[in-house]
Design a protein that fits this description.
Number of strands of chain D: 4
Mean pLDDT of chain C: 82
Number of domains of chain D: 1
Helix content of chain C: 40-55%
Number of helices of chain D: 11
Order of helices and strands of chain C: HHHEHEHEHEEHEHEHEHEHEHHHEEEE
Radius of gyration of chain C: 22 Å
Largest interface: A-B, 50 and 58 residues
Order of helices and strands of chain D: HHHHEEEHHHHEHHH
Structural class of chain C: alpha/beta
Mean pLDDT of chain D: 86
Radius of gyration of chain D: 19 Å
CATH topology of the largest domain in chain C: Rossmann fold
Largest sheet of chain C: 7 strands, mixed
Strand order of the largest sheet of chain D: 1-4
CATH superfamily of the largest domain in chain C: Response regulator
Shape of chain C: globular
Oligomer: heterotetramer
Largest sheet of chain D: 2 strands, antiparallel
Shape of chain D: globular
Chains: A alpha/beta (about 280), B alpha/beta (about 650), C alpha/beta (about 450), D mainly alpha (about 300)
CATH topology of chain D: ABC transporter involved in vitamin B12 uptake, BtuC
Strand content of chain C: 15-25%
Distance between the termini of chain C: 44 Å
Helix content of chain D: over 70%
Structural class of chain D: mainly alpha
Low-confidence stretches of chain C: 6-74
Chain lengths: ~280, ~650, ~450, ~300
Amino acid sequence: MTFDNPLTDKAYQVGSETFDELLAVESVEVSYGPIRALYGISLTVGSGETIALIGPNGAGKTSLLNTVIGMRRPSQGRVRWKGRDITGLPPQQRIRLGMALVPEHRRILGTLTVEENLLVGAITLPRRLRQTRADELMERFDILGRKRSQRAGLLSGGEAQQLAIARALMASPDLLLMDEPTLGLAPLVAAQVFELIDELRRSGMTLIVVEQNARRALESADSACILRTGQIVEQGPAEQIAARDDIFGSFLGDTPVNRHIGSPDGRRQTGQAPTKSSHD
Amino acid sequence: MKMASRSRKQKHRGRVARRGWISGGGPSRLAGVFLGTALLFGAVVLIGLGYTAGGGASRETLFTTLLINATVVVGMQVFIGNTGILSFGHVGFGAVAGYAFAILAVDVEWKRRLIGDAPFGASDVSIPAEAAIAAATGLTLVVAVIVGLGMVRSGAATGDIAATVITLAVLFAVYETAINWTDITGGNRGGISFRPGTAMPGRSHAYAGFGLALVIALLYRSSRSGRLARASREDDLAARSLGVNPARHQMLALLLSVGLVAVGACLRVWLSGTVSPERFFIDYTLLTLTMLVVGGRNSVTGAVAGTVIVTGLTEVTRLLSGPDFNPGPFDFVIRPGLTDICLGLAMLGFMILRPNGLLHDREITDLPGLRRLNRLQRAFAPVSPIPKTSTSFDVESAPIEDSPWPRPAPPADAGHLLEVAAVTVEFDGLVVLSQAHLSVAKGRICGLIGPNGAGKTTMLNVLTGIVSASSGHAVVCGRSINGMAIHRRARSGIARTFQNLRLFADLTVLENVEVVALAHGATPDSARRQAVEMIELNQLGDMASRRARHLDYGASKRLELARAAVSHPQFLLLDEPTSGFSEAESRLIVQQIRAIAARVGCGVVVIDHDLAFITAICDEVYCLDQGSVIAHGSVAEIRSNPEVRAAYTGE
Amino acid sequence: MLNKRLLAIVLSLCLIAAACGNDDDGTAAVTAPAPTAASTSSSTEDAPQQAEPDDGEPEPGEAEPGEAEPAPASSAPLDVDAVLAADLSACGPAPTGEALKIGYAADFSELGGFVDIPGSSAAAYFAELVNCVGGIDGRPLELVVRDIEGDPETAGRVAQELLDDGVTAILGPAFFDVNQAILQVTAGHTPLISVSSTEPLLADPTQLSLLASFTDTAQAKAAAQFAVDQGWRTAATFSVPGPYFGYLVEVFTEEYEALGGEVLGDYPFVPAETTDFSAQVNEIAALDPQPDVIYSALLAFQAAILGGQLDEAGIDAEMLVADAFTATGGYFIDGVEGFFHTSHTFPAPDGRMVRFLNSYEQAKGTALESDSYAALAADAILVIAQAVIDTGSLDPATVGEAMIAGTGVDGLTGVLAYNGGGTPNTPVYVHQVVDGGPSLAAVYEVFE
Amino acid sequence: MTEIVQQLVDGLGRGGEYALIALGVGLIFGVMRMVNFAHGELITVSAYASYGLALTGATWWILVPGIVVTAILTSVLVEFVAFRWVRSATDFAMLLTSFGVHFVVQAAFVMFVSASSRHFARPDWITSTVTIGGIRFEAIDLGIIAATALSLAFTVWVLQHTVYGMAIRAAAEDFDTARLLGVRSDQVIRMAFALAGLLAGIAAVFFLMRTGRAAPSAGLIPMLKGVLAALIGGLGRLQGAVIGGLLLGLVEILLVSRLPDSVDGMVNGIVFVLVAVLFIFRPTGILAAGSSHRP
């Protein structure tokens, strides 16, 4: 899969070792009511870097992404973007600053058409650019182009994931956050998603990927960050982490039975009607 | 951190045990109801006596009004609190009762003046007030049955607008009837009244009504039906899929609730000696609903507390807008309409700031100070305390021999099979399943794999009755389940989990599991025992009294598994049990599912994309693509199947 | 303008509150020395304390066209004209006798507020005037106004509070059900006189329950008579089943047909709700013969809509409406020119009602929202006052009996003669809207 | 025959008014999943605004924009004061919040103006009719039908072809996701409320032209009819709202003319029972809100 980089229209210096700081998370704490999800997380993301965020369930990965994108306000700590403090900014402003999120479960807007989904993704762009960009991406993801005026709710899981990613790319973000992009996808489709991630990485985009399939995620990442019970327990270059079987054993292998960590979003967990396709 | 969690653990364990009696059965439950009634009744009476001690006859009337309103509000709580369906119609039912009562109880001579041409010879009969209350309540219940059937037919569920619309229609239809059927109602701004001086004597009837309301509401709350209704309130579809028939419990809740409201309405009419359409319309609806939501609609104590608070509030506003109060420069606020504004603001404030009311679902018997009393009750409550949590999961040492569940049956004839044949499902012309088939024996674990959109979840939905197939049939243990309602399929031996968690969020972990056992006919004691055991098996023992909404993802998933398994189904259908799990967690869930299957002795159908997991757990695998079964066989067979590789695994 | 009205209401309510507060103090001071069981003679002795002594006879000219009955002279009646002429800035010495307490169970809710808001302001002002000219038989008149919030339950409690306050009589709200709740409390021992109700069932002397106005029976019969007198042979009616909106039409139809007219059809509407009568108008347009008159108890704004729609449909029928017309602001609405309606009295420029309203406007700086309810409220007080004068007693039951036995209190709307019944037998006035104001079309003395 | 046609015409005129209100109710339901029982208060507030304006001698040329602007501002204000706080609350809480707003507004007018109604002049042409082929068309009905059609077209255009509309629809479906995509949530909801206010304002213009009356509960009946219409048509479906409104108008007109005299006052009651029966058998209304995803 090669293409003329319609995914990002910004040039990055791609290097394996040195990155300029793009995003910095400083001692962030997040609580859901009485239950704390993040305990003083600090993380620096360099421009062009791809970080794999791995860890067992309830470790706080989604909470961390939500804090970065602004859906969660930390009770303590700061988030810096290109050197500027953005801790209090609402998500729509962060989008304008160049972040995008591919949310967990894709969260496709099922009543809108495929094209409209893309256009909403670029709602922060000026009107003229919006359509051009949508056309570009629909050319790149040809399945979306073919189904452009179909209701997005009718897409299959793999197509929906492509749409979710394309939608996030609409505003040409500097930083793309991906939350479980292969969740619920068949192995073939999951493999395609990873290929796409690799491609984005090659194109110089900065990525933070939360992924259950830790080994595969590490292959696609520059560095890795292992979370457990709301804390970063290990951090380092992806190859190093991948090579350390002990980490897999001790941090990922053991499911702590008695965690007092909230689920990423307690409300959504049970209270919500099934918005995602129940047929896949 | 460790310390904190341990102490919390102990607290939780204590709490489960402490709450034992209220969710348990037998004499302890009755004792709880008795205690709750006594406490609430006593509290209200004390407040009332204190208030009336210093004042004239009008204070007495206010207190009587409070008792009557409390009867109505507690009545409404029975339905609204337990089913979660917002009803505007209860006041309408009250109107039916109020009119029926007045027509029956007003003395003949007086009545002839007002409604001399009444049909059914209604103007020629007069019965004692108490009998009239009973008769009016009976009549109202008949109306409620009809409305309830309609509501149930509409598939009422929490937050369901259809059910609320139907109740609103009741309110307006009754109001319009009261206005227009003048022969029997006396019409708008008219109505039927008692001969002066024959209104309610004393307060004993109001006491009786209030006491009755408390007993019935608390009884229902702790009853099987009440608990199942609350499970449906939390998640209707999950409850149905696990064998709860919400219709039945909603109906029972509605009837009890309307019965109490009817009694309250009769007393209300009797107290003031008159009934007219406006009395049971929007204003009274606002008043009673405000009372209910201020205190907390999910608890009886909340309903009573709300009544007391709102009555106090309206009395204060009445004083403020009356001639006895001269606020000097602030008398611009002393205006008609103050009461309505305060009620409206109270409702707004609570909906915005504390939508669950002051008490949420806490009852007075949950007060820490009452712990000792509760312990007393536990003395004659035969509920086994939660056994010690095993800190690590150990399949080998699991005491299978002691299990109350049947031993795994040998996989064999049709009596032990789940069979699906030639099932086709279409949505808007889109074929989702076409001539699909599946056959699983009890005791076997069968995987269902395939690319996204292949129809795997639809297969589960067809089996559980959530989706109806356009053709084909399904048989469980030799019994056809075609066309069966969702909850009946669950009772005939199918239990499932969901792709997206669907827990009963506001119930505790223990209750989540317990209600399912109850739905399957277990006695309260055995439901408790089974639930405790299932929770232990799924390593949730130390979280037993935590609300499900506060669990982390992994625990939530385990709870879903426990909840499905406690019904000891013939077949357990699991939709992506490892979704969102890491490899290690997936490995653990393999052991867990195996252990459960072994204990329950059921067959398992499991959908998953994690091939390692499927390989580890499945005895056989079906692979679906574009709605059809493209392969069936052992894991090895499937893995080597070229079609499967092309369509799915790509290996 | 909006603000002015707002201010006026605030002000009037403050005044009520203030008046009540003052009287409270006064009562506390004078209760002990005043004789409690005053005889008729003692009350006449007290009379001279009034600032302007009565002249015993009502001026016949003051009562509007319906000729006043000669007043019974069992004792000196209150001089209404003197009361109306009182100048609040130059009052005589305050009356010192035991206060006559009258309760007003007023409905300030949206349902009954259109009556009792102006009614209670008027009653309070009238009490001020009475006290200014020396009170009733030397007794200060104390008015206690309490809001029943349109609710029978509250009405019952308010009545209880008024009884606890020791009132001699209660002025009642407009509607049947709330009055019934009050009657449960008064239980035939304290008189209740509804200021504005025209409901015949409410007039029950055995329960000491009285009306201050004519009944719907009288009103509808007068309307029927009027229609026939105008030579209108055919009619259509609009009704809602039940009291008032339905009962009026029932009585009208019966009387009208008895007098030789024909009611061609009756059509439904919903008070305060129906704003489009096209379906009904279409049906009327299809009638043959066409109706000469449309009789109904429509609210004023509905009558205006209906009138307009009838006109446009080419139906040339007169509109004849019941007293709801003025009650709901008939003269503040356009499109009602030429309409006929029945009313409690005619606002003749020099009549008592107009003098009272003018006096109020002068004193308070704002006009009352309703003319007839103000007059009826004053009349209700007069009936009670006369009974107190007659009996010299403040005992509720005694006063109540005397009110019912009264044979003529010359009030603002006419002569209120109960003659042992519960209704005052006042005449029914028929007005026509001419140039946006009332003009008197006829007066009927109809007694049931 | 002409009779039936006449009834159809009358029904459309009446139904158009309901449809306008139902459109607003449906729009708010779409964005917030809230059945707005306070929608009628926009009419109440507009009515008092007209009364206030009329007192200053304003003519209908001023009243019409005055009413529309008042309705829009009130709608946005109510959202700001009350509804924004319950955005993510349960349906139960939202329903009761709107119910509470309804009461507070109503009581505020009782308290600060008067319990009795206020009146202002109606336009002269209000009852004029045009007769074509034996069918009388009331001028106001024609106006309403035209306004309904235009409003629907405008609403559809806004929703389908403007970026605001897309944002509204996105927020309506999944509020959090819309936020994640950069949709300014507050602004979108405010837009939806403004649009609903505009529609209610247009309905209010016709309603007030007919009645010329401001009363604390003036908005109750139009609100109920609008909510009923929206429910009948299927909540959240704009075409449904229009169809529901027209249908309700027709049914009412037909019931008033066709019911036997003994029950002809029962129109409202019968309509409610019919709606209840509809909901028993089609719990989502006539045009069921289409499932947004593959089933």
